[in-house]
Amino acid sequence: MLTVSGLSKRFGGFTAVNNVSFKVERGEIVGLIGPNGSGKSTIFNMLSGTLVPSAGSITFDGLQIAGLAPHRIINRGVGRTFQIPRPFHRLSMFDNVVLAGFYGQGRHSRAKAEAAAERALSTVGLPTDRHMSVEGLGAAGLKKLELAKALATSPKLLLADESLGGLDESEMDQAADMLRKIRDELGVTIIWVEHIMGVLMRVVDRVMVLDHGEKISEGLPALVAADARVIEVYLGTDAASSQIAAAEARRRAEAKSHA
Ligand SMILES: Nc1ncnc2c1ncn2[C@@H]1O[C@H](COP(=O)(O)OP(=O)(O)OP(=O)(O)O)[C@@H](O)[C@H]1O
Ligand SMILES: [Mg+2]
């Protein structure tokens, strides 16, 4: 579905993303992890058209999308959430999502945008009340709203820049389960950025690890977590290792209970 090749982004003399290549297959949930400032959001910004790459190519569904305007990329089926939610405060929660619903594949009527907004709000578990304000949504609610906006564009590929830092543990688990449900029930392919890896490792099929703008490891969660280079740059703390171990144990327990 997605082939990224030699992708780089320079800001003046600083290289934020350096020659990164990867592929994503239809139906996967791929985790993209890495320390603060390693280039995760910058990659999403290039995939979604918010930033023009300094070099490299991005092929989505057989078409070159690198450097296209964001609305054109959305129309081809790439949706995204933003790490820092910035809703329009003067619009109702519903209208925030309707506005997103005007984008996406071939959507030109208010009725279609509203229908998309209703579906998206229900999927993430937010009320579809027409007049409810965005004020009073906590960190978890704002994350859900971001997700609803992205889903209202009917993406084939969802770029989820989650960063669940502001959430408590059960809210993080809910967010992880939500992404899995979106993949399983709506058939949306997902790249999930997060730097708290315990929660991510539980639901992703595959992980890529960035450090200083370079891809340093890629593969099955358990293998990546055991990669010496990853441990050195990223997982080197006891807290991180125990998070991974706990996530792995839960993943196994879940697999057993499903079987
Ligand atoms: N518009 C910009 N201009 C200059 N530097 C930038 C810009 N955007 C990002 N950077 C720099 O590029 C590097 C990568 O930033 P990016 O936001 O992609 O990191 P990240 O992996 O998403 O980090 P976090 O986990 O904190 O969200 C950082 O050093 C950041 O300061
Ligand atoms: Mg980021």
Comma- or semicolon-separated keywords:
259 residues; alpha/beta; four-stranded antiparallel sheet; 42% helix; globular; binds adenosine-5'-triphosphate
Explain how this protein is built.
With 259 residues, this protein is an alpha/beta fold. It is built from ten helices and ten strands. The strands form two sheets. It has a six-stranded mixed β-sheet with strand order 6-7-8-3-9-10, sandwiched between helices. A four-stranded antiparallel β-sheet has the order 2-1-4-5, covered by helices on one side. A hairpin with a 2-residue loop joins strand 4 and strand 5 (63-64). The longest helix has 21 residues, at 238-258. The model has no long low-confidence stretch (mean pLDDT 90). Adenosine-5'-triphosphate (ATP) binds next to helix 1.
Q: Let me know the average pLDDT.
A: 90
Rg calc: 18 Å
Approximately how much beta-strand content do the residues carry?
15-25%
> Bound compounds, please?
adenosine-5'-triphosphate, magnesium ion
Largest sheet: 6 strands, mixed
The number of helical elements comes to: 10
Q: Fraction of residues in helices? A: 40-55%
Order of helices and strands: EEEHEEHEHHHEHEHEEHHH
The neighbouring-strand order within the major sheet is 6-7-8-3-9-10
Give me the count of strands. Answer: 10
Instruction: Tell me the structural class.
Output: alpha/beta
- How far apart, in Å, are the first and last alpha carbons? 29 Å
Low-pLDDT residue intervals, each spanning 5 or more residues = none
Q: What is the approximate shape?
A: globular
